[in-house]
Amino acid sequence: MTTHGLQGIGMTSQRTRARMIERLREKGIRSAAVLQAMAAVPRHVFVEEALASRAYEDTALPLGMGQTISQPYIVARMIELLLNGRPGLGKTLEIGAGCGYQAAVLAQLSKDVYAVERIAPLLEKAKANMRVLQQFNVRLKHADGHFGLPEAGPFDSIIVAAAGSAIPPDLLRQLAPGGRMVLPVGGQEQYLCLVEHTPNGFTETRLDPVRFVPLLSGTQ
Ligand code: SAH
Q: Active site: which residues (predicted)?
């Protein structure tokens, strides 16, 4: 895999990116802060060179190792749920960094992003992409995200990019009071789940049906 630069031609132009933002708005993304964060990240940097012309379509795209770069709408939707009118995301944990697209979007809304990925070559690619973007507030770690990142927690925001059959208990433990977590839950049938850490405990809300790659155990 090669890393390509920030310079885009034709399809990767500012205008193509503006159309992606317009589509996100049409699909219901309302938060100006989220739309701005989505507009700030050049998605073509994160996709294989051969697919760069499709980087601003609202679809998931292959990123190698059998994984996909998330669909822009889902990234925006989950981050909007996470932000929920707060001024920023606070200290943020992402599980399933892939090659770092969503981490870069989160980094526009948070001072500190910690992102965990279980597949080493993808993590390396994510690190290279952060260097290209000069995005220095994302810390990337090779680990099984089921356990979160206890040494860096608790987190004000947690977002998971792969679906497990239940909410990992370690992630709940690392969610700060007032914190919010958004994650896909399920197997064949999945839905987005919003967890809020309130003074009375954790509340869980079941939201949109979704389709994510599975949350797997161990590292590779
Ligand atoms: N956030 C990425 C999405 C990548 S797809 C983006 O913005 O495009 C989801 C990723 O979750 C895959 O790279 C997969 O390897 C990773 N993953 C699956 N189970 C995991 C686990 N237990 N810990 C960490 N990463 C995991």
A: 70
